[in-house]
Amino acid sequence: MTAPTIRPTEKVAFIYHFFPHYRYGVVRALTQRLDAAFVGDRKGAEGIAPYIFDHGEEFHAARCYYLGKLAFQPAVVGYCLRARRDVFVFLASPNHVSTWIGALIARLRGKRVVFWGHGFKYARRDLKNRVRKLFFSLAHDFYAYGWRAKRNAMALGADPGRIHVGFNSLNYDAQLPLRQALLGGNQAGHRDGSVLRIFCISRLTRICRYDMLLDAAAQLAGKGIRSRVVFVGDGPEGEALERQARDLGVDVEFHGAIYDESRIAGLVFDADVTVSPGKVGLTAMHSLMFGTPVITHDDFESQMPEVEAIVPGFTGELFRAGSVSDLADKLATFPARFPDRRLTRERCFTMIDRLYNPDKQAEVMLRAVCGLPAATGDDAFTLFAREQA
């Protein structure tokens, strides 16, 4: 089918299993630019609270039912049959049965379809990617979070002009005043520079591999390098990590779950580096927003797309996946690699202010919705090109 060309004034539906609470910023940015309706479950999932649509947005409830990894929303099918919308934007998960049906219905109705998601994590032509390719063919255009997903899709035969790289974001407008207040308070001038301050924020689960970080901190101590690890979050691995820290003699602080963004901002701002040994997602945005670089692993197939915001030597470092010794080495050499805290903060801010914010997301989504050719999308890799030359 030929993709219909539309005007940005026409009506767009955004369909998710549910909208996470951290989507507030991009929801607001989209509603400011488009006649937008949102369709999803009122309840969250996997421990993530939902965004509450009580700010004047048009919202249609569609309960999500789960069977293992599969999800189905009967109301989505009905909505796609009846809704007077010109464009349907779906969360791009092939595990969502109702998305297959809803996208096909929208296409048969002559509507424009856009998928929004991670895309291809690798370029191998295996069964999973064959299914993904069939699924993604239901959409006219694809909004991806990262350049690597676009590059993989191109290797599998996709048209680069139809794949839009729009990055990801948190609530930028709410966080920016906190950043400005911290900069104005010059909080960074009252810290002990002899201790490497390491920050971690997430649920404390096994997949986060914080045990690796504690082992690395112990290796630092063995080399005479002092560090302090600050954890924000709770979870099933909390007690095990506390025991491990005691056994290793590692200096740690466990703050538990914190929901006050100003407190979190202060802890991030006061750290030298954020470490996410398992994989990094929106934690990278949280950290860079307040000027703190990030260390995570380099296995991009198992990473989240937000890893692209980490440019080695500028906004963080990448260690060899699964290697405690390489993580320890990256931490040991971190002060020498990032000697100018002010410059490091500015580089972190630049990554967020230019790319990883709701306005940028909405700008790219608007191109996808309108059927405009996609930009290259490698912005995160070229952001510091002049300095790298």
β-sheet strand percentage? 15-25%
CATH-defined architecture of the largest domain: 3-Layer(aba) Sandwich
CATH superfamily of the largest domain: Glycogen Phosphorylase B
Sketch the major β-sheet: 7 strands, parallel
- Give the radius of gyration: 22 Å
CATH class of the largest domain: Alpha Beta
Described by its quaternary structure, the protein is: single chain
Helix content: 25-40%
Pfam families: Glyco_trans_1_4
Can you describe this structure?
This protein is globular. Helix 7 crosses helix 11 and helix 10 (282-289) crosses helix 13 (341-354). The chain has a seven-stranded parallel β-sheet with strand order 3-2-1-6-7-8-9, sandwiched between helices. The protein has a six-stranded parallel β-sheet with strand order 12-11-10-13-14-15, sandwiched between helices. It has two domains: 11-169 and 358-388, 3-Layer(aba) Sandwich (Rossmann fold); 172-353, 3-Layer(aba) Sandwich (Rossmann fold). The protein is built from 16 helices and 15 strands. By secondary structure, it is α/β, with parallel strands linked by helices. The mean pLDDT is 93. Helix 10 (282-289) links the parallel strand 13 and strand 14. It has helices at residues 24-33, 74-82, 97-108, 127-136, 147-155, 172-185, 210-222, 238-248, 261-270, 282-289, 324-332, 334-337, 341-354, 358-370, 379-382, 385-388, and strands at 11-18, 35-41, 58-61, 65-67, 70-72, 87-91, 112-117, 141-144, 163-165, 196-201, 227-232, 252-254, 273-276, 294-297, 316-319.
